[in-house]
Amino acid sequence: MLARDAALTARGRWLDVDCLLGPTTQPFHVAIRAGQIVDMTPAPVLMRSWRFAYRATPAAFAAYWQAMPPAGWHDLLALTKRGEASLEGDLHPFMAHLQYFKDLLALPRQNGFGGAS
Amino acid sequence: MSGFIEPIVGRYVHVEIDGEINRIYFEENGSGIPLVCLHTAGSDARQWRHLLADEELTKNFRVIAFDMPWHGKSNPPDSQYGNEYRLTTASYTSAIRAFCKALKLERPVVMGCSIGGRIVLNLAIEHAREFRALIGLEAADFQQPWYDTTWLNRPDVHGGEVCAALVSGLIAPNGPEAARNETLWGYKQGGPGIFKGDLYFYRVDGDLRGRTGAINVDQCPLYLLTGEYDFSCTPEDTLRTAAGIPGAKATIMERLGHFPMSENPIQFRRYIAPVLQDIIDKQNS
């Protein structure tokens, strides 16, 4: 999905980071170089490091990915505020590229991935 | 239509605030009951342009929106360049009252959003007799913080980008894309540390818990309206605040977030027009 979104890739063109993203039940090691995902591997991978992790409950992602997500389930930081997601590690790359990560993790919304919350 | 000139007029007024003259930029349109509009933290009065241009509402209201000192076209006061900006309950209250006094407004209605909504509560507590009605958008006596404000002003993170990205989640999904972008553009343009300085009032100095019970709506009607998608000042925060103020009218606005007047002006109008009509009816009764 990211590969088809030239504007989002361009937004992340200054970003190189290894991070941990996804559901709490099955996060992924994600390697991003110049705004493109060059590797995505299910965690855990023994001794692989990451700068930051954003993990949310499967129910939270299902709500977040709805075309019209319910109030309070519509933003990555809304999910952390309500305790449905966690943000850990060195947050600098996440905060310096915050809109990129919000849009990246919202990509499934455009593709009808969301289920009922 | 190329060549169309909007009816909004912008001017500067010199306002003495806490002993120093501030050159304040404001825009206005309409005639009738003065309606002073307060922008959100870190932004400026452009958020009100749709209300300012509303042909029907400006038949009965002189709508006035000003940029707070340090915001938009209102520069910092001369003595303050180089100092850290910090908005306080006292300084915010002084600025609003001084602006109204400078324009010789007779018992204006004041409507504020976010920090503007919070300070409206303080106006109701301390200065209710000066106002005809008070309207708090996304207002509560207090709300729980949801991020660390130190991210807003540091040399290794672009201030405009991070300010806009943080508040982007407070806009309701599926509103007009252009209005969303315009709302965020205001945040990308704020001066360094200004959003953070406004939040000193919001987070630290302006905790009104335990004080709003002193509000008497018989002296000055109070309306509180909050968007359902606002997870900063949540509907629960507003309803809790309103529950402690007998006679306060609280409304939760569907399909709106933290910036109702700018993120989706048409949807916001559905909620604010009846409030303004209620104020007219009260005046005529």
TrEMBL record, chain B:
Keyword Nuclease assigned: no
Q: Which UniProt keywords apply?
A: Hydrolase
InterPro entries for the chain: AB_hydrolase_1, AB_hydrolase_fold, Carboxylesterase_BioH
AB hydrolase-1 domain boundaries? 34-144
For this UniProt entry, the molecular function terms from Gene Ontology, in alphabetical order, are:
hydrolase activity
Record flagged with keyword Hydrolase: yes
Protein's name in the database: Alpha/beta hydrolase
